[in-house]
Structures are given as C-alpha cells and as structure tokens.
Amino acid sequence: MMKRKLCDVFEKPLSGEWGVELEEGEKGVYVIRTTNFTNLGVLNLKDVVSRKIDIDKYQSKLLKMGDIIIEKSGGSPTQPVGRVVIFEENNEEKYFCNNFTSILRPKSIINPKYSLYMMKDLYKRKKVLKYQNKTTGIINLKLNDYLNNTEVSIPDIDKQIRIATILDKSQKLIDKRKAQIEALDELVKSRFIDMFGDPVKNQKKLTKVELGKVGEWKTGGTPSRSNNEYYNGNISWLSSGELNNMYCFNSIEMITELAIKESSAKIIEKGSLLLGMYDTAALKSTINMIECSCNQAIAYSKLDEKLVNTIYVYYCIQIGKDFYKSQQRGVRQKNLNLSMIKGLEILMPDLNSQNQFADFVNQIDKLKFEMQKSLEEMENNFNSLMQRAFKGELFN
C-alpha cells in the first residue's frame, strides 16, 4: 500500500465555468451546480441548467466519464464545504461544472469509483475543515492546500476495484430501500387524489373552506438573543427550516419558561399544524408531537377536530402547495403573512372520509418506520465497510 498526497492521485484541478445566460432560441451546454449534488455521491440531473460557454476555449474543462466534481464554495455551519460526486454520464451531451466547483481527474494509479469513496471518507472524517475559510457568508475550500497536504494510502488497482465494487453493492441496497420509502410517500398522495381529487382542480366539486374557519391561527416569536436566560432551556423552539417532515418530535434550539413569559414566543399545543411563511420555507409544514414554541416565520393552529382531521389538512396543503403559494403572493413577493394563511382555501370533504384517509396514512407510517430502521442498519453497515476499507482492514 502506497502513501500518496491527493495531488499525486489527481491531475491538476480544473476550475468550473458558468458562462453567460442564453439568448432566446440559443442552444447551450449543461452546467452542473452543487444543487445537482446528492449526499450519495451521485448526480441528480433532473434540474440541470443550460448556459452559453465557448466550448473551443474551454475544451479541457468538459466533463469526462469518471471525473470527480468537488464543491469548493458553499457549505453551511452543519455541512462543511468539500462534498464530492462522480460524473458517469456516457452520452453525447456536453457538460461543464460551475465556478463553485472544480474537476478532479483521477490519474491512472487510482480507480475513479475508488477515488470517489476515498474522497467521501475524507469528507466524512471532516478532513476538509482545516482547509476552509469564510468570506462574506460563503465558506470556501482552499482546494490546493487540501490536495497538497492530505495524505492517503493507496492499495494496488485490483484491490481498489474490489473495494469499490463492495461499496457500490452496499450503496445500491441503500438506494433501493430509499426508493421503496419514496414509493410509500407516492402511494399516500395517490390515495388522497383517489379519495378527494386534486385539491387544485377539485374535480369532485367538494366544498371549500378557509383555514381561518377551521382553527385559530397565530405566529411565534424570537426571544432576545442578548438575554442568555432565554435560551438552552427545556422548551423546543422551532424555526421554519425544521419543518421538513409530517411529524416533529424535537428542535435544534431550546428556550426557557422565562422566554415564554417575557417574549412573543408562546407554547404551541401538541397536535397543532405549523406552516412556514417566509421565502423558500413558505407552506412547509409539520404536526408537532410535543409541546413546543416557534419563531415568527411560522404560523400555527390547533385545528378544530369537529371539523377537520389535521393529517388530512397537512396533505391537502402539501399536495397543492405550489398552487397555494402562487395564489397567495405575487411573483416578486417571497413571503406569506398570517392573513394569507387564514385565507387559504382547502377542500372540505366529510369528516369520516378525512379520518379514513388519516387511518391509511398511519398504516403507511408504521411500514415506513420499519423501513427507516432497516435503512439505518444498511447505512451503518455501509459506513462500517467504508471505515474498514480505508483503514486497510477490508482485505488483508
């Protein structure tokens, strides 16, 4: 096993290109952004942009099969910059990566797929952290320093291929299980459409009702950051960035009873519906399974159980979310307000049908829970395999 610096296993990094916007009728080339990255290390090209780039001038920067694309600007406090994906497109289309990324082209001493897993392992072990700097809110990776100073152990090429093959098989099992979980989500949406129709088109001619008529809506608040006695308490305090799942059981930040008493943050009753109001979080939602509080970017209500089932309302809003947002705000307006939330009209089928749908959702949730447990076991197994592989313990 050879000890090498990263700069010895990749060719000199190639910076990405962004080009210029296309004129109407022009055909451009595809440009991959970090929004096309997935945490699995593969690309999602469903939403890849086209730009005008001089191909003759930047011929060397066209992506090739097996290239590693590394994120060099972006990241967040919880997600360091330096994520990697592998380019595996084998068609006639031409692709570049943008100026927030760079191309790492593996040399002949390293298998491309092995190099992907090696770079993912380094990222997972946070080897990138010491090569980050922050300018104007953006985290940048000092790529040359990272490549020149990071040492890795490289086995012979046959062993690399064996390791990559095993990790690939493990990853495919994870991908398959995730696809099964996503299919269950689609099944719930299909059942909703079957029972109630499209909440936008309303083919079944159901009665509509405004959200303001089925519950009392309020907004949360943010206790003063200058008072330390308001934070690190025992009361969950949600921000709109945490409205990612149907149910919410905890929060990133906690506040104190004093904060509830002296600020605009209030206790939200368990089983309430919470809706985001601002920017990209508009109409993201959750149902709190604990007593909690929230900031002013969230509207909430304990809905009237004699009129509606909260699970039904959650899905009605999520399925029709894009339409509701377009109806309640202009093109230039990024935010909703409490009046807009109250004015949202949802379909109002009979309560018995709503409850039947909620029962179906609960059955699917039990199945999803078992699948999620299985997925966690698969991911733990994958992480263990990767750790052993790059410690030289997988094949002795």
Automatic annotation (TrEMBL):
Domain Type I restriction modification DNA specificity residue range list: 2-182, 206-374
InterPro entries per UniProt: Restrct_endonuc_typeI_TRD, Restrct_endonuc_typeI_TRD_sf, Type-I_RS_S_subunit
Keywords of the record: Coiled coil, DNA-binding, Restriction system
Ranges in coiled-coil conformation: 361-388
Top-level division of the source organism's lineage: Bacteria
MF terms in GO: DNA binding
Keyword DNA-binding attached: yes
Pfam families on file: Methylase_S
GO biological process annotation, one example: DNA restriction-modification system
Gene3D superfamilies cross-referenced by the UniProt entry: DNA methylase specificity domains
UniProt record similarity statement: Belongs to the type-I restriction system S methylase family.
Protein's UniProt name: EcoKI restriction-modification system protein HsdS
Upper taxonomic lineage: Bacteria, Bacillati, Bacillota, Clostridia, Eubacteriales
